[in-house]
Amino acid sequence: xxxxxxxxxxxxxxxxxxxxxxxxxxxxxxxxxxxxxxxxxxxxxxxxxxxxxxxxxxxxxxxxxxxxxxxxxxxxxxxxxxxxxxxxxxxxxxxxxxxxxxxxxxxxxxxxxxxxxxxxxxxxxxxxxxxxxxxxxxxxxxxxxxxxxxxxxxxxxxxxxxxxxxxxxxxxxxxxxxxxxxxxxxxxxxxxxxxxxxxxxxxxxxxxxxxxxxxxxxxxxxxxxxxxxxxxxxxxxxxxxxxxxxxxxxxxxxxxxxxxxxxxxxxxxxxxxxxxxxxxxxxxxxxxxxxxxxxxxxxxxxxxxxxxxxxxxxxxxxxxxxxxxxxxxxxxxxxxxxxxxxxxxxxxxxxxxxxxxxxxxxxxxxxxxxxxxxxxxxxxxxxxx
Length: 385
Fold this sequence. Notes:
globular, 31% helix, alpha/beta, 11 helices, eight-stranded mixed β-sheet
């Protein structure tokens, strides 16, 4: 395994030689956590035995199609041809989504139609403390955080024997029971399948919403954390970009760091290896579209999976969670320094665990932003569909 770029800088990051997370000193950058070697990490077991029948294959297609909004053309046609009946059906659907029984049934349908190939590895040295709040930063975006969707749909299902357990909405088992709010694009809470599975734990990604969640639950018995994807739709544009490079569109994006520092919480990095390789993505004016996506908040990406559908080319992905990055130890005037240190820490995490996924084992992580496009030419994974 190649040496970590953080491990090489022992004067500035001495804790890379030690498992402890130390507080920063006045006038210096806080000490960062050591990265747990992959052989000591804990891989979560897969609880689902996947069937291979026609019904499962159909469900697999429907889950991927509907989660990627593939049903919208049919819905538009129905609205055009049978407007009243379609509107009535949509109203009934909106009412059903308010019921636990409907949401649980949809979540179980997602589980039935999900692949058992995506894996989840806990690379933190000790369980996350549920008495604390965290900001979870999910990387990369991919088309629609596809590996995270599959894991939650497959493994975080409601308990049939415990009516109080509503699956992911109750607490994320893969993160030691942390209550996690997904702060994504505002429309996600209304998406089919997404809304039923995330329930009341998905909302918009505005700073006021994130701060509101953290502050209103800070003094409660059950404290709630937030999950964001800093790369956003700009990063999604880089799906299917290269078989040599992985892209993180967070250069110059300080918002998530600033919020964490000011709210006094640490950031848990989570990386889904293989997410950017699940779909083909159009090369035409990638960076221009990424910049426009950042300005408008619109998903300006064109993607395609197997046979031109929303079924991905592969689902051999691995999501890894790491020890928290100590943003709580930085001062409010150290946002840029904290961001630079976070990027270095994320790259070290990436380099340490990229070998756990076949499609990323030979990749390099690039940090780009609206004014800093990739300086390398993409080597395409899929030359033709």
